[in-house]
Amino acid sequence: MAEDMSPMSLTRSKPVVTRAAAEALVARAMEHAEKIGKNVSVAVVDDGGFLMAFARMDTANPASAQIAIDKAYTAAVSHIATHKWQEIMQSDEPLRIGAPSGVHRLVVFGGGQPIVIDGQVAGAIGCSGGHWTGDTDIGTEALKLFG
């Protein structure tokens, strides 16, 4: 086993979201939100849930700022889009009862989506300010940046 301990066997390569990509995602999401008349906050985090880029429209609810950040955090660290959490919890009563109050920063309604590149989570985007379906649509539009 000791002979397998080369640096390459101790690490793995994976995509990560860059600051430039994070800023481009925020800009694209904000442009789409303006186009459809929504007032939102948008956050992009890395794969560990740490904030990379953020913007809040002047007229967006101030509470939407933290919600957008937490949506992105949830999607990044769980590798699950926030709108999928309701479906997951419907079939798992202990999770449904315990997770929302017991898991710090967990958001279980739409607007947070992982950034997946080559099958790996490189970060996440979170949008907040309207109904969760609209927030999800804004994030989906921004993610088209990756193809």
How are the elements arranged and paired?
Layout: H1 7-10, H2 19-35, E1 41-46, E2 51-56, H3 63-78, H4 85-90, H5 93-102, E3 112-117, E4 120-128, H6 132-143
Antiparallel strand pairs: 1-2, 1-4, 3-4
Helix pairs in contact: 2-6
Compose a concise summary of this entry.
This protein is 44% helix and 18% strand.
Determine the fraction of residues in helical runs and give it as a percent range: 40-55%
Using the 3D structure, state the CATH architecture: 2-Layer Sandwich
**Biggest sheet character:** 4 strands, antiparallel
CA radius of gyration is 16 Å
- Biggest sheet, strands in spatial order? 2-1-4-3
Low-pLDDT regions: none
How would the global form be characterised?
Answer: globular
CATH superfamily: Haem-degrading domain
In the CATH scheme, the class would be Alpha Beta
Q: Work out the helix count.
A: 6
User: What separation lies between the terminal Cα atoms?
Assistant: 41 Å
Compressed to H and E, one letter per element, the order equals HHEEHHHEEH
Q: Can you characterise this structure?
A:
By secondary structure, the chain is α+β, with helices and mostly antiparallel strands. It has a single domain (13-146), classed as Haem-degrading domain (Beta-Lactamase), CATH 3.30.450. Helix content is 44%, strand content 18%. The protein contains six helices and four strands, in the order ααββαααββα. The protein has helices at residues 7-10, 19-35, 63-78, 85-90, 93-102, 132-143, and strands at 41-46, 51-56, 112-117, 120-128. Strands 2-1-4-3 form a four-stranded antiparallel β-sheet. A hairpin with a 4-residue loop joins strand 1 and strand 2 (51-56). Helix 2 (19-35) crosses helix 6. It is globular and about 60 Å long. The model has no long low-confidence stretch (mean pLDDT 90).
